Amino acid sequence: MNEAEKITAEMFLPEMVQRYPATRAVLDLYGLHGCGGPQGPREQLGWFARLHDVPIEKLLRELNESASQAPSDVPEFAPSIGDTIYRPFFLAGIATVLTLGCMWGAINLLTIGLKQSFTAVNYSWVLAHAHAMVFGFVGFFIMGFAYQAFPRFKHTSLWRPKLAFTALPLMIAGILLQTVAHLLSPSSLQLEIAAATIQTISVIIFASTIVMTARQAKKPEVYDRFVYAALGWFLLAAVGNPVVFKLFELAGSREQLLFNLATFNIPYRDVQLLGIAVVMILGVSLRLLPHAYGLREPSRAWQGFLFWGVNGSILAGVVLFIAGMSSGNHWLLIVQWLTTFVLLAVAIGTPRQYRLFGPVPENERDRGLKFIRAAYVWFIIATAMLVFTPIYNFAIYMPITGSHVPFSHAFFGAYRHALTVGFIMMMIVGVSSKVVPTLSGVDVRRANSLWPTFLLLNLGNLTRVSSQIATDFFPSAYSVMGFSGFIEVVGLTLWGYELFANMRAGKKLERETSVHEQNGNGRFRITPQTKVADVLTHYPQLLQVFLRHGFGPVANPVLRKTMARVVTIEQACRREGVDLTELLAELQNVEISDQPANSEPVVPITRIATIQ
Ligand code: HEM
Fold it and tell me: pTM of this prediction?
């Protein structure tokens, strides 16, 4: 047995890659591809095997074989656009939360609270907030996560990463334009159509990238159909978006607006929240929870019920509700109500299937788990509220308040935020808090625990849901509700900052590696993006080459320590009008002696004098 065969399931990825650089190629084959930086995330091999669905014995055998490879055979670490594609999407999601999304929602809520009326806030503002949350916050996180994780889970690479990326600027532009269209309504239909078209193109790009990635992978898995269904709901929501804008923003009269809202608001939001977000979350849970936390895999029968039950109830619910409301046939609405029981059954049964609240081994636990557990508790609360809605309306709301309309806006809004903030947002916060440090090469178990975010988000949402229902009976509850949004925003700001810091750490790691790009011999590689100072630190003798090409400032030790640290070879060439290819060739071809890395380059005194 040689030394290489000491690679075991307990070994941490970075330690292994550091000792046996050739093993990274094997991890790449199973979907590592730049995740966690050049040496992979700080996780054990057993965890990697489970997450990437590779039999551990096979993985260990291949790793041990590759470990004995000659250092010169080791491929260079060259991260590509697809390797960190989640980053700009997640950043856009965080930015949305802190501006048009939750921040705007909190301002709306404060206005409602202070004026003690749900109609006190401009409805266009509510619509703009809701749209930014669904297409922006939920959309960006779903896109970023899917682009990053889907190809890796399937041991392939992302189909056309540059095209995939364009979904981001398109979606940002579409959402911003749509926000303006809401603010300018009713004179903004054309702007809305333009905004909706751009967003639809973005969704089509996203959906086709995922479908084509799956096709090239040829590795069908149980959760795939959830992803496809969520993509289908996303497309439907994108196509329906301008229609809904017209119905809600451009209704001819108040009666028409009330009819449109009563008939189409619930179905449209169901397509968005249940169709896009909940279906995708259920699919991601299926892939992530058993593989990342070692939880039990739901039975085949439950997986089937989960898929057909949820998608069936959304579809039937949407059709029956629209038909019932527009025809006045109450039987259709009763059947629609029955579909909500399926959602409640899913919410109760799914965490049981995973044994989500059972013991999880110490080494599998991390900061994301508490959010994921809380999310499933909120899912049960939200679906129980949904089932209870007609009972509340007829048996509690109407008799106590004397209302003639069997619909409490307060109760339904409370249900909606139990689902959106409690389940959808909590889940996104939990999963992102787990994957971002992992992908950035930060040890998730040593990272910030995010307890303040967890407590504030739950406290804020609990206050919001309970006080919003209480506004039906006690006007004083409005003021409590009014401030609850800011509790959530503070929690989310802490979370956003933490993720941002994790991503920055990952970026730094990559920069360092791209600067210290090494091949199997541990040798430094010079590329157009390499900083001038790094070249000189590694190969002080190359100073002469720079000077020959007219880079005067590098002769000055102070400028070498300052300016040269931030200027890349490419930038320096542009600045000095030097041919990049020629310089690179010369730098790379110079016979490099093994000079100590830290030695100061020696500049002839006369040369310094002439340059300065
Ligand atoms: C800090 C978090 C949030 C705050 C303070 C907030 C605030 C509000 C307010 C004040 C309303 C209007 C009142 C009402 O109808 O009940 C509203 C509506 C809405 N919000 Fe939020 N929200 C938050 C998070 C979210 C999230 C995470 C989502 C989606 C994932 C979301 C989606 C919606 C939707 C769909 C509506 C209904 C719009 C309609 O009437 O059609 N919100 N939100």
Answer: 0.81
